[in-house]
Amino acid sequence: MNIDPDTRREKKVRLRLVKDLGVLVTGGAGFIGSNLVDLLMENGYTVYVLDDLSTGKLENLERWSENGNFRFIPGDIRNPLDSILTSSKMGGGPPIGTIFHLAARVDVTTSFLDPEADMEVNYLGTLNVLEYASRMDVRKIVFSSSAAVYGDTEVLPVNEDISLDPLSPYGLNKMASEILLKIYKTQYGLDHTILRFFNVYGPRQDPGNPYSGVISKYMNWTRNKEPLMIYGDGSQTRDFIFVGDVADIMASAASSNFVGTLNVATGKENSVIDLADAVEEVGGNQLKRVHLPERKGEIIRSVANIAKLQEKLGPFEPVSLKEGLRQTYRWFETQPEQVVH
Ligand SMILES: NC(=O)c1ccc[n+]([C@@H]2O[C@H](COP(=O)([O-])OP(=O)(O)OC[C@H]3O[C@@H](n4cnc5c(N)ncnc54)[C@H](O)[C@@H]3O)[C@@H](O)[C@H]2O)c1
After folding, report:
1. Is 170 a catalytic residue?
2. Strands 199-201 vs 191-197: parallel, antiparallel or unpaired
3. Rounded average pLDDT over 254-274
4. pLDDT above 80 for 4
5. Catalytic residue among 48, 123, 150, 170
6. Ligand 1 neighbours (beta carbon < 6 A)
7. For 159-177, how does the pLDDT look when each residue is reduced to its tens digit (9 = 90+)?
8. d(CA 278, ligand 1 centre) in Å
9. Per-residue 3-state assignment (H helix, E strand, C coil) for 59-82
10. What is the CA(49)–ligand 1 centre distance, in A?
11. What number of CA atoms fall less than 13 Å from residue 338's CA on the CB side?
């Protein structure tokens, strides 16, 4: 199941890339990447996906596997990209004009357990993308950064200009990647937009993936009528954004001349308890709630100021949390049951 086409039709996606050039999506088999690939393919672009399938799945891309404009290139972002993106693997397709860099290890907790692996994928991976892009005349890179670069800030809603204070190796490697992008702009003129995603949710977020966000787990537990686990007292807040909106914003960022950093969020703050209530309502089940100890490095409050996003990329009407949860739940109902902890 894909994102409800009505949601997309109502919005005018600002996607204007040069059609003679290809688009590379690193991490394109993953949750956000595959939703972006759908948008690019639906608009007639040639899309290369580079992914090691460590958390991504080929089934997320299945509908494009026979399409002549689509190429899946297996590979590890820790290696130089010119050794992966060979002309034979690119199947005689056009050179790459735009790179959406999403490949990453996506979890704060595991970044403490294996900080070296986090650095290799999340920082060295970005360096490899930039090295390739600067040599191959790529026009623009859109980088998926994270609200984790801010840390537990007192300034709320958080705007892009406050000083960064990440609380985890994951946040640190995203911050270091952002700085690298700026260096490659200054030194080599390579354009970029850095997008700091807040909490993204929607179809294809895998609840079985230990790195996945709270909404996919709550959906799964609700569907299976299992208790909802809540870290701490559940008063911690998040800014939840639907994955279809994130794909649209990435497309707009790639199509615009804007170079710099933007929050990708709705500007609305919801507590984990609010979320548990909303998921129960959508799923039609009232469930037991189990409180667990707070997690290391967890941010207490998170909500974004999205004025700059609207100023630079145009007006943005996010999908409401209720509507996003409804679409996500419909997708969950098509999925096999999973036992998730
Ligand atoms: N989901 C969120 O709420 C969220 C929030 C902030 C930032 N982000 C960022 O968005 C991006 C996408 O995240 P997602 O939620 O879709 O996660 P995901 O795990 O579904 O996607 C990551 C993809 O990268 C691939 N990958 C991982 N290591 C790789 C490697 N060494 N080489 C090649 N491919 C590799 C995985 O197989 C997967 O397909 C990430 O950069 C993440 O840091 C996500």
Report:
1. yes
2. unpaired
3. 96
4. no
5. 170
6. 27, 29-33, 51-56, 76-78, 102-106, 121, 125, 144, 146, 197, 199-200, 213
7. 999 999 999 999 999 999 9
8. 26
9. HHHHHHCCCCCEEEEECCCCCCHH
10. 13
11. 17
Give the model confidence (pLDDT) of 176-190 as tens digits: 999 999 999 999 999
Q: Which atom of ligand 1 is nearest to the CA of 34?
A: 16
Q: Whose CA is nearest to atom 9 of ligand 1?
A: 144
Note the helical H segments in 123-271.
125-135, 169-188, 214-223, 243-255
Do 119 and 161 contact (CB within 8 A), yes or no? no
Residue 32 alpha carbon to ligand 1 centre in Å: 7
Instruction: Answer yes or no: are the C-beta atoms of 69 and 45 closer than 8 Å.
Output: yes
Q: Which of 129-143, 223-237, 256-270 has the lowest mean pLDDT?
A: 223-237
Structure tokens at 97: 């004009």
- Is the bond preceding 293 in cis, omega lying within 30 degrees of 0? no
Given the CA of residue 60, which atom of ligand 1 is nearest to it? 39
Domains of the chain plus CATH, in order, are 21-201+240-266+299-318 (3.40.50.720)
Q: What is the DSSP letter of 241?
A: E
